[in-house]
Amino acid sequence: MTVSNRRQFLKVAGLGAAGLAAHSLSSKAARAASERPNIIWIYSDDHAQNAVSAYGGRLAQVAPTPNIDRLAHEGVLFRNSFVTNSICGPCRAVIQTGKHSHLNGFRQNGDRFDPTQQTFPKLLQKAGYQTAVFGKWHLATEPAGYDAWEVLPGQGHYYNPDFITPKGLIQEPGYVSDLITDKALNWLDNQRAADKPFMLMIQHKAPHREWEPGPDHLTLFDDVEIPEPDNLFDDYEGRGTAAREQDMTIEKTMRMNADLKVWGKESSQPGGPEHGTWKRTYGRMTEEQRKNWDAAYDPKNKAFLEKDLKGQDLVRWKYQRYMKDYLRCIRSVDDNVGRVLDHLKEKGLDKNTVVFYSSDQSFYLGEHGWFDKRFIYEESLRTPLLARWPGVVKAGSEVEPMVQNLDMAETFLDMAGAPIPGDMQGASLVPLMKGETPADWRKSIYYQYYEGEKAVHAVYCHYGVRTQRYKLVYFYDLDEWEFYDLATDPQEMRSVYNEETYADVVRGLKVELKRLRELYKVPEEKKPKA
Predict the structure, then answer these.
(1) For residues 18 and 30, is the Cβ–Cβ distance under 8 A?
(2) Which runs of E-coded beta strand occur in 431-475?
(3) CATH no. for residue 134?
(4) Cis ω before 197 (30° cut-off from 0)
(5) Which residues contact 425 (CB under 8 A, 6 or more apart)?
(6) Cα–Cα distance, 66 to 81 (Å, whole number)
(7) Residue 81 counted as domain residue
């Protein structure tokens, strides 16, 4: 077509120079919208980094996570991923807001999330994204900024769980990890608008306590011996009051009935439908589900009771039962991660969808003799983070710099091409995912835990700073400091706070801790108790 003919065509078509420019911009905008990636955030609860086989460790061979590992093989694994406050609700509030607990208002479980505040899903909606969340929410108020949602009340249940929906409370028959995935895939196929990018959050309850395996995995690991950590029988020598006075040991804290499924072993055993533990667990099952459960657990329990174990032998048995149930719950999560990845490929969505896998925090798998989380120590401070982004992230790559859950809201917005508000406190991980480390990337992270010694598990309030090598912690209700050299003591078995050799390092970290508290606008804490 000649220039003259082209001008005549545009004139007839009603497109002058201005119209041509507008048409071109409109086409670019439409093309940009179609090219913006979809985002799927798969989030579990209490999944220890040490229980993801892509990270290696003592469980990698006996309890692999092949589908979660696919994200590392086909994308990126974050080697040093940490949380800001190792407890369920607060971690979720940080993801929503990109702000530390003291600013988003959700410091501890039992708080209520303010749904009117700025959150990343609201900003994604403004940027043209559809948003949806299914599964565990745990923020006390209904989700805001989501086009579709169905969430578990509180911690939720493993068997035949209830869901809070925009239309009210419903109960669904089945196992919770499968049901959450069903809802997410149904939304993908039947409810979203196909011409808009989406952000989908799939948030599992598992493997949260009370570790009830699904019907497909009740006997998994029966013939496997789970390796013990070196410090299963830690005596807390060389640590402070907080480590000695916690209430989260496998030996003393773990319950034989609800936690370890040995009904009738304690005076608190379920006596029937009026017992709270019975209602929460076994009491929710159908007759067929109980039959399968009893067939799996009754022979194992009978063999255990006949042995009448004591002392360290009993702790070792409890560790094995705990770990096998915990890992059985994870296998169900891993199966459902595989379902999501396979479904994306089947529907042709895999090439333009970023898939993340993470957990709200990590968990103690017998290290220090513990279960649960809360402490700034490595096993609960770290959390798994893996992601696949076809065509952008190099398959099999790893990120070494320190990242936090504080960075996720900013990352989602950056991927969507949406502005990142200046009051968010993290930084987008997109450059790191592309293999680039910004010159000003953080060299330290800040952590603070608020619940205190009167809350469940009796972990004292504390805050601290971690660098690549060192960690300084202040238990402010106790007025006690701890300091660890992670290069020489990676298991944090002995605080060297008072050693003269480290005096200069400690002084420098106190300056850095003060800087971080000012940077993140952390208010002064109450004075230590008299």
Answers:
(1) no
(2) 444-449, 462-467, 470-475
(3) 3.40.720.10
(4) no
(5) 98, 99, 100, 103, 406, 520
(6) 20
(7) yes
User: Which of 97, 156, 135, 82 minimizes the C-alpha distance to 362?
Assistant: 82
Tell me the residue range of the domain where 183 lies.
43-211+340-440
* Residue 418 belongs to some domain of the structure: yes
Backbone phi, psi, residue 415, to 5°: -60, -35
Among 373, 371, 366, CA closest to 447: 373
Beta carbons within 10 angstroms of residue 412's beta carbon: 29
Residue with tokens 């086909």: 74
How does pLDDT run across 19-57, given as a tens digit for each residue?
433 333 333 433 344 589 999 999 999 999 999 999 999
pTM of the predicted protein model: 0.92
Give the chain's domain count. Answer: 1
Per-residue pLDDT tens for 240-267?
A: 999 999 999 999 999 998 899 987 655 4
Could you give the 3-state DSSP secondary structure of residue 171? strand
Domain assignment present for residue 84? The answer is: yes
* Residue 377 structure tokens: 């120590």
Helix (H, G, I), strand (E, B) or coil at 481: strand
| 106 part of a folded domain | yes
* Contact predicate 305/269, CB 8 Å: no
Burial of 166 (0-12, 13-18, 19+ CB in 10 A): exposed
d(CA 75, CA 395): 4
Helices and strands in the chain: count of H runs, count of E runs: 15, 16
The string of DSSP codes covering 324-368 is HHHHHHHHHHHHHHHHHHHHHHHTT-GGGEEEEEEESS---SSGG
